[in-house]
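One such given next:

>
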Amino acid sequence: MMVKKIEQYFQYFGVAPKIQEVSLKVLPAVIQKLDIPVTPHNSYKTAADYVLNLHELGFDELHYVLGISNDHCLFGKAVIRVGDHYYDPTVIARHCFLPKDQFVSIYEMPMNELKGFMAEHNNEMPSILNLEVVEMLKRGAKNPEL
């Protein structure tokens, strides 16, 4: 039901992004030990910091993932994807547990695209509230590789 609502929302803007519900995992201990700063109430900044720092440390297949979370209401959020696994870097296992929120991925931005976006927008992180993201979703809908 959540996926359907999100599809309807983006149809209003004339886009049809690849939407999928994904399971979020707690960051592996090896990544948590890196002590990359976490901004709990700013998932966009935290996810970008993790993608950029993990890239510098030699991690591959990194994506900044924009999506919608459901915690009694729908709200925009960013998480990371490393390989085939999705992580919420704002949740640290040693401090708490993963909430049972649903997360729907709407756009998965490779690390190089994230760096380009930030350079073009004075280090602003992509968010679902940014109208530039709607334009990216339009381009992504035309490009089946995204």
